[in-house]
Model the fold of this input.
Amino acid sequence: MDRSLWLLIRLRGLSWLRLWGKNLRTLKGVLLALVGAFVFVPMLGSALFAPRVQTAAQLDAVRRYGALGLLAYCVLNVLLSAGDRAVYYSPAEVNFLFCGPYRPRQLLLYKVAVGFGAGLITALFMACAFTPHSARFLSSYVALFLGLELIYLFSMTIGLAISTFGALAFSRGRRLVLAGLVLVAVAAVWPLGREALTLPPGELVERALRSPTVEAVTLPFRPFVMAYCSERVWPDLAVWSSLALLVDLAFLGVVLGLNAQFLEASASASVRIYEKLRRARRGGGVWVGDAKARVTLPMLPWWGGVGPNFWRQLASALRSPSRLASMIALYVAPLGMMVLLGRNGSASAGNVLGPLVSVFLGVSFIVSSAVGYDFHADLGRMEDLKTLPIRSTRLVLGQLLTPVLILCVGQWLGLVLIVNLAAPDPVFVAAAVAFALPGNLILVAVENLYFLWYPHRVVGINSFDFQAMGRQLLLLIAKVMTVGATAAAAAAVGALFYYATGGNLAPALTAAWFVALACGLGLVPLVALAFDRFDVASDRAE
Amino acid sequence: MSIVVEDFHKSYDRTVAVQGVDFTVAPGEILGLAGPNGAGKTTTMRALAGILTPSRGRLIVDGHDVVRDPVAAKSALAYVPDDPNLFESLTVWEHFRFIASAYRVKGWEAKAESLLTQFELTGKRDALASELSRGMRQKVAIGCGYLHDPKAILLDEPLTGLDPRGIRTMQDSIRRRAASGAAVMVSSHLLSLVEDLCTSVLILHKGRKIFHGTLADLRRRADEGGRHESLEDLFFRLTESDGAAAEDAAPAGAEA
Done:
């Protein structure tokens, strides 16, 4: 690789440290870094020194399914890609490097080197999270790092293959990959014969995974999994990680061997991705660029000023089905875990319900801050919103209703699956359905309230930024406390009614529901006040 | 000739962006590239810079084919896009340092200092790119482009975001580069810039060349038939009519 590209990597690394140091020169920066460190250091400490919670069964499950999971991730990456994937370079890299005196291979090696550095840091964070469930920290770190590089190189290979053979060939290739997957599945199940029709699904999957076809297909991915599960550094980790490294190097060889004319595809991909990032920095969210005007939503009534903004946000949401699907998938995904637990017989429907509800609440907190179609998406349009001839409270309500609706739909769909899998008490289901609306109104209102008080842009936060971590943590704590206070108020009134009516649940739930709704609606004027006080003259977003 | 473009075609799937464009830019010449949005100006520049691969034709920079010998061609070239993106976390000085390393510029520090002074960026030497205004970023990008004394300079809308003083500085710098032997191509929507700065003009419309000649040729064309049109009126007339018809109507002496 050209020495100037090494210089660029070094300069960018140093600039990152410099930026970090610069932020630490302010009191706010120090405090936020301390809060971030307060989270990260114990996380790292527990990863390194806390007793392992992994069990032999967990590691065994990783050994059995890990390679297939890694393969599935890589294949899904191909199947779900837009068809014009390319190796992404930042606009500055396109400006300076693409018309600079470099050969394409030098630019590819530069990209690999940058990915290598990013992988070293990302794997550290991932290892902290995964280590309690792995054999040892070192195994976890090495395997995750090599696995990340594999995913990165796999994606690069696909991007370059598309540049070499063209998008049309890629579309045909996707069909071939799909056909190949079907063939592998058939080859895996074929030896079972008629037995395949009678076996329970769990047993069928188990037997298929042990078939020689699946074993052969997942073979290159196995060293990464075995490295992760290595309990001894020598010979286990050393041998398996060396094999994993060889797989990575083989992919690197393919990347460099393809020698594709990727500059043009990368330059146009860079423009598209950068435009999305710019929108996100303005507050529009990275998904907005994917929107297509396929759906025309009739204009909603005026509704005292609530209608126009509700319509605008709802129309935007309906035009980004992929985003909506991903939000809803966040609710549905935990059910996959439940299926696995149920299949292994380690949990009954009843005792899965509790953890599932916790996961649901956690997901709701995450989705409420990521869903968009509220003030997050309008950070760059605050001037326009302020000039609308609509009273603030009504404008705010119009802004909040779309995310509330999206959260409700996600939760209701999730509940349908819960009912099918865990058969909970019908009263629980009815209450969950009813409380979704006021609960989500509270959640979204609180999210927007804090956002208007402390606007921030999530794009650009790197994984090692303690200050950003600290800010996110403080906001999360404030959000949990506020939502918790409203939930406590509703629960207290509900409990009062419960005892006053001699243990009758219906009036207690009804009273709690009204209190929750009142809390949600009561937050709207507060959000409106925050909106009124939002100073567009100084873009305070960080 | 420092820049030679022969039978340049560029198409994306079914969209033809540029078709059959030929022109040359000699050392010392400042070619103004004009045309409405979507005419193919930026595509032509990006192809010359080696970012886009031509569908057909030859692009030569300083005697090197951009497709066959890209490194040699790019070593002689500077391309500054209309919206220059800098490395946000690098300082202005570090940008120069990187460019000096990439193009193997000896004694770059003195040149960089001189460029900082020329573009009134001395006070911003250690500022991060993310802290610079739009106009300053433009100046840094052009300064970086000048650092290795390129023989061919491609500037896409170089005056965007500059204040009046910045515009004058930029125009002077372009004239000086041309005077020292560089072939310069300037793409702009501002016809006044083309008129003030350029020695020759290439007008593209819908990917086709509809006028190529000196500024004097263009003025003659405007005065033809006693019309005495302004260049702006002529530009509108050429680009609002069908490209082929306009090409046929090109004046004698002008390459069309």
Remarks:
- The domain at 3-248 of chain B is CATH 3.40.50.300 (Rossmann fold).
- The longest helix of chain B spans residues 164-179.
- The beta strands of chain B are 3-12, 15-25, 30-34, 56-61, 64-65, 77-80, 152-156, 183-187, 200-205, 208-214.
